[in-house]
């Protein structure tokens, strides 16, 4: 008995499939990715993918999960402020590195082990900063919105970001100063380098956390039984 083909079948596992799907998604975008393309990238029958993933949507979720889990491989800083900086920059770097799948990352289900771990680190840092639970929840949402929003915004400048920003500055500078005096005056300073904007906003947020934490600790101290007994 002889084989019909001399080609050995490709042995698939979830890790290989997710890696290949990420390659295809980066090239085609998530909307353009098909399981047939993923199969071709693997050199395998695309129907074999269904043994590991029930659908394309399930595979897309697995891609995002792998990328978020990659952040957890880094060493986690000790101080609360350093931890928040690490989370913010790691999240932003992830979005910047994968602009074709920004929407997939931004809409990744909260019922995710990797996101749960990242959120746990962030919430722990905010509580260590002195925030009460309600404040920690609010500031956590602010940070998530900031990181996701930055990722989506920077993805919109993909291609030639420096040239695009310069063109936008020239457009504002060319407006009629009689109608747009403020825009014309500030035109040369509009759309600054993304790193400067990100670091500025991050410092503002972290300073706000520090102030809120100090305020909460002060309130807690003033209402403690020991403090009341001394007054």
> Tell me, what is the CATH class of the domain at 76-217?
Mainly Alpha
Query: Do you know the CATH architecture of the domain at 76-217?
Result: Orthogonal Bundle
Gap between N and C termini, in Å? 97 Å
What is the helix content? 55-70%
Oligomer: single chain
Q: How would you sum up this structure, described in words?
A:
- This protein has 231 residues and is an all-alpha fold.
- It has a domain at 76-217: Tetracycline Repressor, domain 2 (Orthogonal Bundle).
- The chain contains eleven helices and no strands.
- It has helices at residues 14-28, 35-42, 56-71, 80-97, 102-106, 113-128, 133-156, 161-173, 181-186, 194-222, 225-230.
- Helix 1 crosses helix 2 (35-42), helix 4 (80-97) packs antiparallel against helix 6 and helix 6 (113-128) crosses helix 7.
- The longest helix is centred in the C-terminal third of the chain and has 29 residues, at 194-222.
- The protein is flat and about 70 Å long.
- Residues 1-7 have low confidence and may be disordered.
Question: What features would you highlight for this structure?
Answer:
single chain; 231 residues; mainly alpha; Tetracycline Repressor, domain 2; 11 helices; 68% helix; 0% strand; flat; disordered N terminus
Helix-strand layout with pairing:
Layout lengths: L13 H15 L6 H8 L13 H16 L8 H18 L4 H5 L6 H16 L4 H24 L4 H13 L7 H6 L7 H29 L2 H6 L1
Helix pairs in contact: 1-2, 1-3, 3-6, 4-6, 4-7, 6-7, 7-10
